[in-house]
Specification:
The structure holds 2 protein chains of 2 kinds. Chain A is mainly beta. By secondary structure, chain B is of the alpha+beta class. In chain B, strands 8, 9, 12, 13, 14, 15 and 28 form a 7-stranded mixed beta sheet that branches. The chains are: A mainly beta, B alpha+beta. Chains A and B meet through helix 1 of A and helix 19 of B.
Chain lengths: ~100, ~1000
C-alpha cells in the first residue's frame, strides 16, 4: 500500500489516487506529425526500476501528481506538480522502501 | 467426561472453569485456556483427521498455526467454519467441532482404501490419469475429482457475524511476542516510541517453557508476567494478542488479522468476529520465531508422532500428557528441553534417539542424568494404527537397532527460522549450514529480524537480539533514544550442533508435506521425471501448496530434492512465500463491503416520485434509474411499448439526473472545448446548446453530449451517465498537464443539478403550466437548441430545448434538493394533457427510432465516421484525436458503419449482440470472422414501425440500405431475416422537433 506525497495535500494513501500512466511522454504540439502522435499514444517503455508516472489524486484535490517510483521496489523518491522537473536516481540505485 | 491425560498440576489452564465441548458428536470436557487439540489430547483423543489424498488417520503434530493435520470444522449452521486448526482453536463452552475429509466416520473412512492404491496415486497422478479420452474431462473426471478433493465444506447460509477493517500507525511494529519480541517491545517502549506488539496466540511468551527456561535467574513464566505488566503500563505500547501479521506490503505496510471473537460462540455487544488491520510502521522488528521440522521416516504421520516443541507446550502450558511413555527422536539439543519438561512432570521417556554420533554437552548431561540416550540412531518406522504403539530404530546406515514400546514419538528434525514475512518483501533467504536453516538476507524494507526468526535459536541470543532490535528500530524511526540498558540474561547460550538426516533409511510411506500427502518418494519421482527446478517440483508434487504453505515441510522437501539431484540445498534454493502467512477468512477481507454496503447506491432526487408511480428500477453503474412504470398486471414489453408510443402521442417525462454534468468557467473555456470536441465551439452564442462528440487521443470516439453556453466565459457540459467520471479526469489531464496556459476551470455538478426531460407534442403546454409562466416557452423566447436560466419560486432553474426522442422536448434542471418539487409540479400540470412517466427502456426505443447513438454504440472501437458523424470533424482546427483519426485503418472504406436494422416480417424479435450475415448458409460458419459482416448493438419494439428495429454496425453500411441480411444469434440459435435501412427510422426530416 503506497503512501504518496501530494504537493497540495501532503502524504496521502494510495487508495485516494488513480494510477494514470507514463509521465515521461510529452504530448506533441497540436500540429505535430502522425508519427509523433503515434509515439505519444502507443509507444511505452516498461522499465524495471525508476519510472516517472502520473498519479491522479481523484479522491482528494483532483490534481495530477508526477511521481518518481521504482517499479521493482515500489520506493517513491520524489513527487511534484506537472511542470516540476523531478530527479530520477540512476538505474542501479534503489532499495529500502 | 474424564480427562485421563490431564496432569494434576501446572499449566496456564483455568481449572476452576471447566467447559464442555463436542467432537464428532461426542461430548468431552476441558478447561478454559485449552485449545481444541489440547483438550482432545487431555481426553486421550489422538485421531483428529484424515489425510487429504490417502485418508490416513492423523493426529496433531504441532501446537501452532502451522498445523498440517488436525484441520477441523468449527461450529454449526451459518457459523460453520471449515479448515480451522484444532491446535489454535480456543476452547469455549458448547464448542461443536467436526473432523473433515472422512466418511462415514473418522474411524471408518471409506476413502482410506486409497492407501491400497497408493502406488498409483503418486506425484502427477491427476495429470497422468485423467487425460484420455478428452470427452470424459467434464462429465466424468471432474465429478470424480470434485468428490474426492477438498477439505471442509463452507456454511451455506449467510454469515451472521460482522468483520471490520481498521488502520493503525506506529514507529515500531513487532511481529511475535516470544522472548525476542517481548525484549524488543520493552526496549523500544522505553524510548517512548509508539510501539505495536502483535502476537498470534492468546498468550505472550512464544516457545518459552514456563518452568524450565530461566531468564535473569527466574522462571520464564515470571519474566513473561513482569514484561506483560511493564508493557501494559507504557501508554505508548499497544499489545495485540490473537492477532496474526499475515502480509508484508509496500512502504512498510503490514496487514494483520485480529481474532476478536473466535474464542466465543457468538460475538457479544455488537463486536465483530474478526478485525482486519492495516498497520503502517516506520520500522518493523520481525521476531516470529522458528518452526520445528518433523523427521522423515516410515509411517511418520501416525497419530502420536508429534514435534518435540509441541509435546513441551502441551505438558507445560496445558498440563496435558500427550503420552505416558514417550520416545524422543532428535538431531539437535532443543529436544532435550522437552525431555527435561517430561521428567519434571513424571512422564516416562522410553528412549532418546539422537542422530548425532558424538554427544553434545547437552546430550552428555542427559546421559549423565541417566536418560536412555542412543547416539547415532534414527527412527526407522512407527507402528500402530490409530495411535503409535512402538518405534523401530536404526543406525544411520539403515542397520536395525531394535525397537521400543511407546505411545508417543516426539520428533525434532531441527528448526527452520520463520522467514515467511521477510520472503514476502522479496528478500531471498540464505542457507546457513551450521544451523541447517534458511535465514533472512539483507533487508530491502525498513525491517530487521531478531531471535529465532533470524536463526538465533539459543534463548540468550533471542533476548539480546530482541532487546537491541527494539532500541535500534526506535532510533531508526527518529526517536531520541538514551543508552541501551543491559539485555535480559538466560542460561542457554548456544544452539549446539545439529546433524540432519533428511530421509531416514526406509522404503515405506514417509511423509514430507502432511497436509497435501506428499511423500519422500513423490519428490524423488518428480526429480526423475525431470521436475528438477524447485518451483516445478513444488507444483508437480503440490509440496508446500497446502494452507500451511509448507511451513513444516519446505526445508525437508528441498533437502530431499537436493539429495536426489546430488546438489547442495543452497544450489536448489527455496520457493518464495506469499501472503497470507496463515489462512484468512474471505469475510475478513470483505469487511463491511458486502450486501447493501458493498458499494454506494446512488438515487436521484426524484427517487421517491418514481417509487410512488410504481417504477421498476435498473442499475446503471451505481445509479438506480426507473426502467419502466408498469400499470397493474402489465408485462414489461407491453409497458415499454405503451410508454414509447404515448410520448409521441401526448407527452412523457423522464428523470435524466444521472447524466454527467460539468460546469466550465474562464475566458478560455471556448478554446478548451474547441480542442476537446471534434466540432467547433467558438461561434456558439450564449443561450445556445450544441451536440458535441469527443475522441480519445487514439482517434476513437470517447463520449458525446450536449453542451451549452450560458455566458461568454461559462459553459455547461453534459456527458453520458457511464463516462461522467472519465470525462472529468480526461479534462483535468488536458487542463493541468497539457495546456496549463489555458485559463479554464471546471468542476463536476452531476449531483448539484437534477434534471427532467419532458418530450412530446404537449410538452410546451405542460411546462407553461408547471412553471406558471416563470419562463416564456414560446419558439421566439426559447427556440430549438436554446438555453435559458430562470427563477422558479426562488430557485435557480435552467431550461434546455433539446431533444433525444425527436419530439418537441425540453430538459429542465433545478438544484438537487428541488428535484421532488419540480417533478411533482410537472406531473400535476401534465394530468390534463396526457403526461406519462417513461423509463430508460422507452427512452432507448425513442432514440433508436431516431437513430441517435448511446452507450451501446460508443463501444470504444468506433470512429466518428463509423457512427455517420464524420462530417462533424472540423477541418479548421486541431482537436484531441484528430491526428490519429486519419490513419489508414481508421478511414478504411470497409469499416463497419452505423445502420438501422428492421425485421423483414412483422413477426419475430431482433436481439442485441446478433451477428449480421449474408445468407442462412453462413450460420454454421458464423465464428469465421469473414462470415460476420456486422453486429446489432441496440434493439427495441417500435410502436411507430410496428415491429422490432435496431441499430448496428455493418460493413458497407450505407451501400446496403434496402438490402436483406440474416441476424444470427448463436446463443439461442435464432435467425431472422432483416432489412438494412437508414438509422433515421422515424421523422427523418426532424419536423416533430418543433411541435
Amino acid at each position: 500500500m503506497h503512501q504518496i506525497y501530494c504537493p497540495w495535500c501532503g502524504f496521502r494513501d494510495e487508495a485516494e489516487f488513480q494510477y494514470s500512466g507514463d509521465a515521461t511522454k510529452k504530448r506533441p504540439k497540436e500540429n505535430g506529425s502522425e508519427e509523433a502522435f503515434f509515439d505519444y499514444v502507443y509507444v511505452r517503455e516498461n522499465p524495471k526500476g525508476w519510472h516517472t508516472e502520473w498519479w491522479h489524486h481523484v479522491g482528494g484535490c483532483r490534481q495530477w501528481v508526477k511521481v518518481v517510483r521504482n517499479t521493482q521496489t515500489h520506493e517513491i523518491v520524489a513527487t511534484g506538480k506537472p511542470d516540476d522537473k523531478l530527479p530520477v536516481p540512476s538505474a542501479k540505485k534503489g532499495g529500502r522502501s | 467426561m474424564s480427562q485421563k491425560n490431564r496432569l494434576p498440576n501446572g499449566g496456564t489452564i483455568i481449572r476452576e472453569r471447566p467447559v464442555t465441548f463436542s467432537f464428532d458428536g461426542k461430548s468431552y470436557s476441558g478447561f478454559e485456556g485449552d485449545t481444541l487439540a489440547s483438550a482432545l489430547l487431555a481426553n486421550g483423543v489422538h485421531l483428529m483427521g484424515r489425510s487429504f489424498k490417502y485418508h490416513r488417520p492423523r493426529g496433531c503434530i504441532s501446537a501452532d498455526s502451522h498445523e498440517p493435520n488436525a484441520i477441523v470444522e468449527l461450529r454449526t449452521g451459518a457459523r460453520r467454519e471449515p479448515n480451522t486448526r484444532a491446535t489454535t482453536a480456543e476452547l469455549y463452552d458448547g464448542l461443536e467441532a467436526k473432523s473433515q475429509n472422512a466418511w462415514p466416520s473418522l474411524k471408518f473412512d471409506y476413502l482410506s482404501f486409497n492407501q491400497l492404491l497408493s502406488p498409483f496415486l503418486t506425484a502427477g497422478f491427476y495429470y497422468k490419469t485423467f487425460m484420455w479420452p478428452a470427452s470424459f474431462w467434464e462429465p466424468i473426471y471432474e465429478k470424480i475429482i470434485r468428490n474426492a478433493a477438498g477439505l471442509g465444506s463452507a456454511a451455506t447460509e449467510p454469515d451472521p457475524d460482522t468483520y471490520e477493517h481498521a488502520h493503525a500507525h506506529c514507529d515500531v511494529l513487532i511481529a511475535g511476542a516470544g522472548p525476542a519480541g517481548l525484549a524488543a517491545a520493552l526496549s523500544a517502549g522505553k524510548t517512548g516510541a509508539r510501539v505495536i506488539l502483535v502476537e498470534e496466540n492468546a498468550f505472550l511468551g512464544g516457545q518459552l517453557a514456563l518452568d524450565h527456561d530461566k531468564i535473569n535467574g527466574k522462571p520464564a513464566a515470571d519474566w513473561i508476567a513482569e514484561a506483560e505488566a511493564r508493557l501494559s503500563k507504557m501508554t505508548n505500547v499497544t499489545v495485540m494478542t490473537r492477532t496474526v501479521l499475515f502480509g508484508y506490503y509496500d512502504h512498510n505496510v503490514m496487514a494483520a488479522l485480529e481474532r476478536v471473537n473466535d474464542h466465543v460462540a457468538v460475538p457479544q455487544n455488537h463486536e465483530p468476529r474478526q478485525r482486519m488491520w492495516t498497520i503502517r510502521a516506520k520500522e518493523v522488528v520481525i521476531a516470529s520465531g522458528s518452526q520445528e521440522r518433523p523427521m522423515v521416516f516410515d509411517n511418520n504421520d501416525k497419530p502420536g508422532v508429534m514435534l518435540t516443541t509441541a509435546v513441551r507446550r502441551y505438558v507445560d502450558r496445558f498440563a496435558v500428557a500427550p503420552g505416558r511413555y514417550i520416545a524422543i527422536c532428535t538431531n539437535n539439543d532443543d529436544a532435550y528441553k522437552t525431555a527435561d519438561v517430561l521428567r519434571a512432570n513424571g512422564i516416562e521417556i522410553a528412549v532418546i534417539c539422537d542422530a548425532r554420533e558424538t554427544a553434545s554437552s547437552v546430550a552428555q548431561s542427559a546421559i549423565d542424568a541417566g536418560l536412555p540416550v542412543e547416539l547415532g540412531v534414527v527412527p526407522a518406522k512407527a507402528h500402530g494404527w490409530y495411535q503409535v504403539s512402538s518405534l523401530s530404530m536404526q543406525r544411520l546406515d539403515g542397520s536395525p537397532y531394535g525397537s521400543v514400546n511407546c505411545d508417543l514419538i516426539a520428533v525434532s528434525g531441527g528448526h527452520s527460522a520463520d522467514v515467511h514475512l521477510v520472503s514476502q518483501t522479496g528478500v531471498a533467504p540464505v542457507w546457513r549450514e551450521d544451523i541447517q536453516s534458511f535465514v533472512p538476507d539483507t533487508p530491502m524494507r525498513r525491517e530487521r529480524s531478531a531471535g529465532a526468526s533470524k536463526g538465533s535459536f539459543a534463548l540468550a541470543d533471542c533476548l539480546k537480539e530482541g532487546h537491541e532490535a527494539g532500541h535500534e528500530a526506535a532510533k531508526s524511526a527518529g526517536i531520541k533514544v538514551g543508552k541501551l540498558a543491559a539485555a535480559p540474561k538466560a542460561d542457554e547460550t548456544e544452539y549446539g550442533p545439529i546433524h540432519s538426516v533428511w530421509r531416514c533409511p526406509g522404503n515405506g510411506k514417509a511423509f514430507v508435506d502432511f497436509q497435501n500427502d506428499v511423500s519422500a518418494k513423490d519428490i524423488t519421482l518428480a526429480e526423475k521425471e525431470g521436475y528438477v527446478s524447485v518451483e516445478h517440483a513444488k507444483r508437480y508434487t503440490t509440496l508446500g501448496m497446502a494452507t500451511d504453505q509448507g511451513k513444516t515441510s519446505n526445508v525437508n522437501g528441498l533437502a530431499i530434492l537436493a539429495e536426489a539431484r546430488g546438489q547442495s540445498i543452497p544450489e536448489v534454493g527455496t520457493t518464495r512465500f506469499r501472503p497470507p502467512y496463515s489462512p484468512i477468512a474471505i469475510g475478513a477481507f470483505a469487511g463491511h463491503e458486502r450486501g447493501m454496503t458493498f458499494q454506494p447506491i446512488r438515487r436521484t432526487a426524484m427517487h421517491r416520485c418514481h417509487e410512488k408511480l410504481g417504477a421498476v428500477f435498473v442499475e446503471a453503474g451505481q445509479w438506480l434509474r426507473p426502467q419502466y412504470y408498469p400499470k397493474p398486471g402489465e408485462e414489461i414489453m407491453a409497458a415499454i411499448w405503451r410508454e414509447s408510443d404515448q410520448v409521441r402521442k401526448t407527452a412523457g417525462m423522464c428523470d435524466v439526473s444521472t447524466l454527467g454534468k460539468i460546469e466550465i468557467f474562464g475566458p478560455d473555456s471556448a478554446e478548451f472545448l474547441n480542442r476537446l470536441y471534434i466540432n467547433g465551439w467558438k461561434l456558439l452564442a450564449p443561450g445556445k446548446a450544441r451536440y458535441g462528440l469527443m475522441l480519445r487521443e487514439d482517434g476513437y470516439v470517447f463520449d458525446d453530449g450536449t453542451t451549452s453556453r450560458l455566458a461568454d466565459d461559462h459553459f455547461f457540459m453534459t456527458t453520458t451517465t457511464a463516462n461522467a467520471a472519465r470525462v472529468l479526469a480526461h479534462m483535468e489531464h488536458y487542463s493541468q498537464v497539457v495546456w496549463p496556459d489555458l485559463n479554464v476551470h471546471f468542476c463536476s455538478a452531476t449531483e448539484q443539478w437534477c434534471g427532467v426531460a419532458v418530450a412530446g407534442p404537449n410538452a410546451r403546454t405542460i411546462l407553461d403550466a408547471a412553471f406558471a409562466g416563470a419562463q416564456d416557452m414560446s419558439d421566439e423566447a426559447l427556440p430549438f437548441m436554446g438555453v435559458r436560466e430562470f427563477d422558479w419560486n426562488g430557485a435557480k432553474a435552467r431550461i434546455f430545448r433539446i431533444s433525444f426522442s425527436g419530439e418537441l422536448a425540453y430538459e429542465v434542471n433545478v438544484p438537487w434538493r428541488y428535484g421532488e418539487a419540480m417533478w411533482d409540479s410537472i406531473w400535476e400540470a401534465g394530468h390534463a394533457h396526457g403526461l406519462i412517466p417513461y423509463g430508460t427502456e422507452a427512452l432507448s426505443v425513442l432514440r433508436i427510432e431516431k437513430g441517435h447513438v448511446a452507450g451501446n454504440e460508443l463501444d470504444g472501437r468506433t470512429t466518428a465516421a463509423d457512427m455517420g458523424l464524420g462530417k462533424m470533424m472540423s477541418s479548421k482546427k486541431e482537436f484531441i484525436g484528430n491526428r490519429m483519426a486519419h490513419r489508414e485503418g481508421m478511414v478504411d472504406p470497409s469499416r463497419a458503419e452505423l445502420v438501422g436494422i428492421k425485421i423483414a416480417q412483422s413477426e419475430g424479435r431482433l436481439r442485441g449482440g446478433a451477428h449480421l450475415i449474408e445468407t442462412r448458409n453462413d450460420t454454421n460458419t458464423v465464428l469465421d470472422p469473414d462470415a460476420s459482416k456486422g453486429w446489432v448493438t441496440s434493439v427495441g419494439d417500435s410502436p411507430q414501425l410496428g415491429c422490432w428495429i435496431g441499430l448496428g454496425y455493418v460493413q458497407g453500411g450505407t451501400a446496403r440500405h434496402g438490402m436483406k441480411m440474416i441476424a444470427h444469434y448463436p446463443l439461442r440459435d435464432e435467425q431472422i431475416e432483416v432489412e438494412i435501412v437508414s438509422p433515421h427510422f422515424f421523422d427523418p426530416k426532424g419536423e416533430r422537433l418543433h411541435g
